[in-house]
Write a structure and sequence with these properties.
The chain is mainly alpha-helical. It has one domain (about 1-130): Lysozyme (Orthogonal Bundle), CATH 1.10.530. Helix content is about 50%, strand content about 5%. It has seven helices and four strands, in the order αββαααααββα. The strands form two sheets. Strands 1-2 form a two-stranded antiparallel sheet. The protein has a two-stranded antiparallel sheet with strand order 3-4. β3 (about 110) and β4 form a beta hairpin.
């Protein structure tokens, strides 16, 4: 959670539709910009808990995948009707523990590697990858 807080930062009005530590406001949510630190942490914890539940079937990789999905969205990892399943998920499903390259491929924005995102992915791997 500290990793997400560090890289997301605390979102203000200019970051709409994000609030707190990267929570995306959903239609009907009644959150205000006067969010306290405690409320923002609670919201982050709730979001992360939901993502961990989504990835629970991936065992020891569930927190790593949840943390990645918090930043890129679960559909980019798991796939959906219009986006195929990621190479990362395919490799994990095959039982391979050698998926660092596939994880680090999520360091791209509009096809180009972004240094700050790359640092974030490396940090997540160092903190959360279990061999």
């Amino acid at each position: 959670m500290r990793c997400i807080k560090f890289y997301e930062g605390f979102h203000q009005k200019q970051h709409y539709p994000y609030i707190g530590y990267g929570h995306r406001l959903l239609s009907g949510e009644r959150l205000t910009w006067g969010l306290t630190e405690k409320q923002a942490v609670s919201l982050l914890r709730s979001d992360l808990r939901k993502l961990c539940a989504l990835f629970r079937t991936y065992g020891k990789d569930s927190l790593l995948l949840a943390t990645l999905s918090y930043n890129v969205g679960p559909y980019k990892v798991l796939g959906n009707k219009s986006i195929p399943e990621s190479r990362l998920i395919k490799k994990i499903k095959s039982g391979s523990r050698n998926f660092h390259k596939e994880y680090l491929d999520f360091s791209r924005y509009k096809g180009k590697i972004v240094a700050s995102i790359s640092r974030r992915r490396w940090t997540e791997l160092k903190l959360l990858f279990q061999s």
